[in-house]
Write a structure and sequence with these properties.
seven-stranded mixed β-sheet; 11 helices; single chain; Rossmann fold
Length: 335
């Protein structure tokens, strides 16, 4: 059994603890920690044999913890990842890997010093059946070369303290990752645009925004980012290829016919939209650690690439210019 410690006992942290306890085989959650110690104590009390630690650093240092899952607030990710790597422990970190590219580079340096991978980033869309099938079709070549991606990320609400830049660095970070994964291509340049603002959006941040990207091969990507006040949680993606298109399917839903209308429900919670992907993702992570001794899912390089793109896009805001997305040379560990 792989003994796991979870740092962060908020919504996604509690859900991952449930998942790792009830669904994922070959592991057990033996420890948890949270910035608010009371939250960790409350969660630990719900599970037999789980210990609550005062800090994430104490949890990482605990001898019974073999692997660390980081689901804490975004600004804390890089620090906990570096601490886990320093301890030589396997670590799964929810997105984003860090708040800026500089911290990602520190993480890459720390991991490459070990000579093997210890880190996986929680880009769960790689494990969504719809995206996986899109990737298979694109890679098969049956539709020819991919030319464009049209995508959107629409959400219902954001917590207090949300800022314009977070629409790219915290929300659209998923699109920044999944588009380069689907295309198998790195980004060349990018720009973010402020468009006509929704009358419903009066919280002080830009909403919606449009992200524009060009890849090294010349493919173009546009992403509508609507972080709040949408009709539901709606993720859309279409890849336009030389010989056809491939679309991300909507989540399965029963179609209702009544009162001369045909309707089906739209989800409002991201955890429900990708619930199966999360199950598959963490099951794969634990199984791969058992079989290979290191993860093979989204890497520190993937986290870095998304972060560099996000940093560049946020710098482009208000300039009306495409800015070059410049990355360091890719270490051999990630090739």
């Amino acid at each position: 059994m792989l003994n796991i410690g979870v740092i962060g006992c908020g919504a996604i942290g509690r859900d991952h603890i449930r998942r790792l306890t009830d669904i994922v085989p070959g592991c057990q959650v033996v420890a948890c920690a949270d910035y608010f110690e009371e939250a960790a104590i409350k969660v630990a009390a719900q599970y037999e044999g789980m210990k609550a630690y005062k800090t994430g650093e104490e949890l990482i240092a605990a001898p019974e913890v073999q692997a660390v899952v980081i689901t804490s607030s975004d600004p804390s990710h890089a620090g906990y990842v570096l601490e886990a790597l320093k301890a030589g422990k396997q670590v799964f970190c929810e997105k984003p890997l860090a708040q800026n590219a500089e911290d990602c580079e520190k993480i890459i340096a720390a991991e490459t010093a070990h000579g093997k991978r210890l880190l996986q980033v929680g880009f769960m869309r790689h494990y969504d059946r719809g995206y996986a099938e899109m990737k298979r079709i694109i890679d098969s070549g049956e539709l020819g070369a991919p030319l464009m991606i049209h995508a959107c990320h629409r959400n219902v609400s954001q917590p207090d303290g949300f800022q314009t830049e977070m629409g790219v660095s915290n929300v659209a970070i998923h699109e920044l990752d999944i588009c380069r994964w689907l295309l198998g291509d790195e980004y060349k340049n990018g720009q973010v645009l402020k468009v006509r603002q929704s009358a419903c959006s009066t919280k002080g941040y830009d909403n919606p925004q449009i992200v524009l990207l060009e890849t090294q091969s010349g493919a173009r990507i546009d992403v509508e980012v609507q972080v709040a006040d949408a009709y539901g949680y709606d993720i859309q993606c279409q890849v336009v290829c030389e010989k056809g298109t491939v679309n991300l399917p909507d989540p399965y839903a029963v179609v209702k016919r009544s009162n001369a209308t045909r309707s089906f429900p739209i989800l409002t919670d991201w955890k429900d939209r990708f619930i199966e992907a999360y199950d598959i993702e963490l099951t794969h992570w634990v199984k791969t650690l058992e079989e290979k001794g290191e993860p093979d899912g989204p890497s520190a390089w993937d986290g870095y690439a998304a972060c560099v793109a996000a940093d560049t896009l946020n710098r482009s805001r208000g300039t009306n210019q495409f800015l070059p997305i410049e990355m360091m040379d890719k270490p051999a560990l990630y090739k």
